[in-house]
Structures are given as structure tokens and as C-alpha cells.
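Researcher: I'd like a candidate sequence for this fold, 166 residues long. If you have to choose between options at a position, lean toward the conservative one.
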């Protein structure tokens, strides 16, 4: 990939991560487990514990990636190799952690991906605010997934063909 394209991709990826980080931080700072589980339902308590845990992990991965992209962009001489490695990490740590959360409180149903409907399906019916956050994040991470698709497999294949370790 050309230097300009990689640098541009780093800038747009960083902006999208910034947006996702802001949404997650606001949500996590303003909500507690007790506020989400007002009915004191045991099954929902477990659901929300898992959901909050997944969002906290995603926030950390996103913040780390955001910082690394900042480092890549601030270097006096833009290092394409470092930047591509960071973009690869964004795909594998942020995008994958959003679409494949550890606690599986939600999942993506590919049958809805091209219908204009929300492709996110929840294991249990969450509060409106949990649903809204997840749908907002899905739009950001869907875009990142599309823009960083090269870093899913092609990047690794190219590095292996060059005899490099990733």
C-alpha cells in the first residue's frame, strides 16, 4: 500500500476509534449494573455483567490502538511498516472483539447485514440504552471492518511471503 493511503487510513481509523471511545466512556461512566438491572433479575444480572465486561475490554483495546495510531502519525518520518502493524492490531483486537465478544451477549446475524436492518442480535432483551450503544458501535466497527479488511488476511499472507514474522 502507498504511504499516502496508509497514513490516510491511520487518520480515519483513529477518528473512528475516538468516536467509539467517547461513546463507551460516556456509557460506562454514567451506568451501573444496578441501573441496568432494575428488576433484579438474576439472568439479566449475568447478562449485564458480561456485557459491561466486554465493553470495558473493547474500550481498553480501542484506547491502546488509538494511542499507537497517534504515535504512528506523529513520527517525523511516517513509518509505513509500523503503521500497517498497528492497523492489523486494530482489526484483530478492536473489530474482532466487537463482533465476537467473549461473553456473547450479542452477535451479528449476517442475514440482516445487507437489508438495512440492524444485524446485531442480543441473547436477552437489553435496556434501550444498551441496545442503542451496541448499534452505534456496530456502525463504527462495521466501517472499520470494511476499511481494514486487507489486514484480516492479506497483510499476513504478504508478510509471510516476504519471510517476516508478524
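Model: Candidate sequence:
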Amino acid at each position: 500500500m502507498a504511504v499516502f493511503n496508509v497514513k490516510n487510513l491511520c487518520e480515519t481509523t483513529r477518528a473512528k476509534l475516538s468516536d467509539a471511545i467517547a461513546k463507551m466512556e460516556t456509557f460506562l461512566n454514567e451506568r451501573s449494573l444496578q441501573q441496568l438491572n432494575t428488576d433484579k433479575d438474576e439472568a439479566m444480572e449475568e447478562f449485564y455483567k458480561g456485557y459491561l465486561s466486554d465493553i470495558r475490554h473493547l474500550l481498553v483495546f480501542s484506547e491502546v490502538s488509538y494511542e499507537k495510531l497517534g504515535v504512528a502519525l506523529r513520527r517525523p518520518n511516517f513509518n509505513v511498516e509500523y503503521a500497517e502493524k498497528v492497523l492489523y492490531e486494530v482489526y484483530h483486537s478492536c473489530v474482532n472483539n466487537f463482533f465476537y465478544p467473549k461473553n456473547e451477549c450479542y452477535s451479528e446475524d449476517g442475514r440482516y447485514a445487507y437489508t438495512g436492518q440492524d444485524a446485531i442480535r442480543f441473547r436477552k432483551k437489553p435496556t434501550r440504552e444498551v441496545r442503542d450503544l451496541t448499534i452505534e458501535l456496530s456502525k463504527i466497527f462495521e466501517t472499520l471492518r470494511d476499511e481494514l479488511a486487507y489486514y484480516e488476511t492479506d497483510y499476513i499472507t504478504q508478510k509471510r511471503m516476504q519471510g517476516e514474522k508478524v
